[in-house]
């Protein structure tokens, strides 16, 4: 397998991206193409003593940053690392493409360059959130602020394939994020979507378990939580905000007095597990589901470990041929 | 001041409601009317040795429960404790009414019986959430799944009055919950609402600080977080779910081994503060903002302390005359 990595995008690029690629090459093997300023990347690879690894470089002089207009960046900056990498994955020069750059620019670029799977209305960005007993896939977590029941039906299918093939969950339970558990709950979008998810479930194509409330998702009530990108983004950010707030309060509590400081020392080894569970570096990245080629978005603040984890996700996505899986079921996804 | 309390509604009614009323009477003085089955309430008051307190009883034989249709319950069950209590507060037999019953039934009932303030399009349910440095008022937290920019403008005004008069926050900072901080973010509702909030702020009537993301709210980036009732409900429940999940994981961590169990014993006194901060019993209840008389919704799972706290909130709401404040500004609240 060959992975194309945008070396220049992200808060910690290019250092963390190159390091993460080296880490992945050592851990998983495979071939890699780092896209970006050749001289800079070459120097970083030398520093990592990675000259013998199967990592090549494709030069790209420009970079898309957070100030570029997402809708037009990839078209306007044709020689940017992101644009070059997208054309490479479109043309089959590699099996998957990974970027930690501007989410909007990457989504617009992927839609423009690598295109959506025929019949898919919108690509969705899924996010794996920690929950009781494991992880839950939330989608759309921010790509599409305004959605129709058909989009949400397609998200339910695509999320199910991803949860089954990449996360290894058998018959993933699909929940519709709603403001109550009863089937009469929600706004017009939710009521209409409930009916189409129910029909797909009755036909045996997805495993719809009904409405889930915000509090049910962290409890692990479903494996795939389907929602529009506005609500999904607010949920995802709320989870991050509350977790950060509580960890901060916990830290303050540990600093209260000598007793609590001693308690912290006793807890430190066990705290590692909690921190690891909450860390986004363990998942690393997510594909735009519905794009015709594997395009992975890594977190903007990705460190080397997050890039390494994104490579792992991308490998699983390519191996399981999730794109082919979506294409095979596309006839059921239209309303 | 005289408080009318629906004694029969809520998961722990009537015991917890009567106990909470007794607790409030002992702590705050004031007069109370408990509405519900007279014989049952009398017996509970006797058990509490509360015969000498200024608590009277108004008999009501029926009860609205979770199985009643919210839209019609108050009209259909005219002799229910909730219906009787609503008519009493409408007719001036008390200054405020408190119920831990079915939220939808109470909202429909209040709209029907006590009516909205003239010019207010929808009543909103605010919730005080813990955040860095204090509490943030989230509204609408569940009353109206579908909203217009005008509703959200009215929520911003009403939330500001409540935060200032009841929570004691000077010039409360109003944020619009959105999927990004930039002023171009969001769906149509958010974009249109941004403009009207900006205009109200430029006229010096509210203190609008722009868009806030889900992660900004727990960080204390605003005092009043304005959103539609669908998003507000999902946020509120997500906060509850994540907090519950993390507290559970923390508990598991404490149970890991002898060291962590010892750590727990050392932390126990300090943990009380964290638990108290996260507890809904400390706020107890919230008014339906925009209803012409003070109608307070207490949490369905209210214990006695939550009812006592709801009484405290209701007293502050009546004293500050938030209803009068809204009426005085109604001319600015129309679009």
What does this structure look like?
- The structure is a homodimer of 335-residue chains.
- The first copy, chain A, is 45% helix and 16% strand.
- Chain A has 335 residues and is an alpha/beta fold.
- In chain A, helix 6 packs across helix 7.
- The first copy, chain A, is globular and about 60 Å long.
- At the A-B interface, helix 8 and helix 9 of A face helix 8 and helix 9 of B.
Secondary-structure topology with pairs:
Two copies of one chain form a homodimer.
Chain A: E1 2-6, H1 15-28, E2 31-36, H2 38-47, E3 55-59, H3 73-76, H4 81-90, E4 96-99, H5 103-113, E5 127-131, E6 134-139, H6 149-165, E7 173-177, H7 188-202, E8 207-212, E9 224-226, H8 229-254, H9 258-278, E10 285-287, E11 295-298, H10 304-319, H11 322-329
Parallel strand pairs in A: 1-2, 1-4, 2-3, 4-11, 6-9, 7-8, 7-9
Antiparallel strand pairs in A: 5-6, 10-11
Helix pairs in contact in A: 1-10, 4-5, 6-7, 6-11
Kindly summarize this structure in a few lines:
Chain A is built from eleven helices and eleven strands. Chain A has 335 residues and is an alpha/beta fold. In chain A, strands 3-2-1-4-11-10 form a six-stranded mixed sheet, with helices on both faces. In chain A, strands 5-6-9-7-8 form a five-stranded mixed sheet, sandwiched between helices.
Would you tell me the structural class of the helices and strands of chain A?
alpha/beta
Overall shape of chain A: it is: globular
Strand order of the largest sheet of chain A: 3-2-1-4-11-10
CA-based gyration radius of chain A:
21 Å
Largest sheet of chain A: 6 strands, mixed
Low-confidence regions of chain A: none
Number of strands of chain A: 11
- Integer average pLDDT of chain A: 94
Q: Work out the helicity level of chain A.
A: 40-55%
Which quaternary structure do these chains form?
homodimer
Q: What order do the helices and strands of chain A follow?
A: EHEHEHHEHEEHEHEEHHEEHH
| N-C termini distance of chain A | 36 Å
Largest Cβ-defined interface: A-B, 58 and 58 residues
- Strand portion of chain A: 15-25%
Count of alpha and pi helical runs of chain A: 11
């Amino acid at each position: 397998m060959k992975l194309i990595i945008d070396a220049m995008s992200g808060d910690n690029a290019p250092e963390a991206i190159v390091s993460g690629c080296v880490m992945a090459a050592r851990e998983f093997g495979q071939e890699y193409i780092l896209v970006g300023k050749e001289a800079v990347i070459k120097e970083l690879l030398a520093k990592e003593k990675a000259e013998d690894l199967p990592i090549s470089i494709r030069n790209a002089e420009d970079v898309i940053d957070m100030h570029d207009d997402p809708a037009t960046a990839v078209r306007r900056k044709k020689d940017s690392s992101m644009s070059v990498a997208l054309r490479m994955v479109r043309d089959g020069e590699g099996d998957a493409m990974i970027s930690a750059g501007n989410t909007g620019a990457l989504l617009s670029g992927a839609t423009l360059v690598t295109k959506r799977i025929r019949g898919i209305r919108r690509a969705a960005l899924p996010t794996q959130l920690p929950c009781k007993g494991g992880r839950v896939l939330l989608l759309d977590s921010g790509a599409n602020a305004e959605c129709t029941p058909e989009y949400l039906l397609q998200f339910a299918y695509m999320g199910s394939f991803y949860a089954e093939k990449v996360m290894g969950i058998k018959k993933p339970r699909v929940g519709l994020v709603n403001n109550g558990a009863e089937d009469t709950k929600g706004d017009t979008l939710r009521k209409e979507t409930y009916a189409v998810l129910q029909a797909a479930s009755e036909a045996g194509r997805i495993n719809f378990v009904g409405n889930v409330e915000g509090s049910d998702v962290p409890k692990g009530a479903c494996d795939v939580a389907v929602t529009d990108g506005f609500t999904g983004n607010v949920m995802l950010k709320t989870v991050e905000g509350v977790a950060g707030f509580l960890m901060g309060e916990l830290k303050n509590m540990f600093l209260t007095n000598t007793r609590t400081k001693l308690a912290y020392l006793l807890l430190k080894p066990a705290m590692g597990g909690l921190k690891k569970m909450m860390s986004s570096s363990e998942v690393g990245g997510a594909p735009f589901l519905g794009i015709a080629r594997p395009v992975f978005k890594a977190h903007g603040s990705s460190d080397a470990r997050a890039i390494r984890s994104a490579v792992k996700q991308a490998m699983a996505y390519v191996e399981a041929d999730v794109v082919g899986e979506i294409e095979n079921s596309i006839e059921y996804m239209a309303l």
